[in-house]
Amino acid sequence: MELGKRQQLEIVRLTEIGAYVGEKERPEQAVLLPRRQVPEGAEIGDTVDVLLYKDSEDRMIATTAQSKIVRDQLAFLRVVQVTPIGAFLDWGLEKDLFLPFKEQNGKPKEGEECLVTLYVDKSERLCATMKIYDHLTAPAPYEKGDTVSGTVYELKALGAFVAVDDRYFGLIPSSEVYQNLRPGDRVTAQVTKKRADGKLDLRVRKKAYKQMDEDAQLLWIRLEEAGGVLPYGDKSDPEEIRKAFGLSKAAFKRAAGHLLREGKVQVLDQETRRLP
Fold first, then answer.
1. Which of 9, 112, 193, 198 has the most C-beta neighbours closer than 10 Å?
2. How many whole angstroms separate alpha carbon 40 and alpha carbon 3?
């Protein structure tokens, strides 16, 4: 009998408070299935499909209710409460699921959804973790040039780690991260490389010629909001441009050049001006 997994267990005893389910060879280890969840007409010897977890008093208990996640699965669960020691997630059962602080990537906020899996902690309790690397798989069924969807689950110096299809290994290298990504963000990306081990390198942004119109529109909106003058130009610092627009300097220059060719702007060393 395993915590956090659905299993077929036998009814070994019936009482006023419910049925005790377990393995016929070990009746002393039977677990309570509360009365309200015992199937109508159930008898000793019948089998029931249950999930085992611990209640608010840390007692092992069985439930026929369908949880939103089981062991060895990944799922998005909504944050219902954030505390100094961790967060609590809605997993479809009466007792919310605990996500310890040390198992978090980033800072989950109330109302957000987190991509998590289950594990059993040192106290033999079910908990959630956002550290899902060991639960992903390879090779992915994609090749260079394919478009994929996934969830950012961790940010490191190497870049943004993505669970492609919430199942396969993916990485947006730091050189390709041109926006403020957070764990839990869902992205659509292009496969730029499939490694020998089947893991994927990704790029969120489209090819330059496809992205340019969107970037030019962004630059124009920012110009309008700033009254027609932006303190960024051909010789501006790349990191300042990244922080201001979420664009690489090359993407910024392509966008500014697009507006320049349309006669909408003047681009100086440290400034871009809207033309009358």
1. 9
2. 25
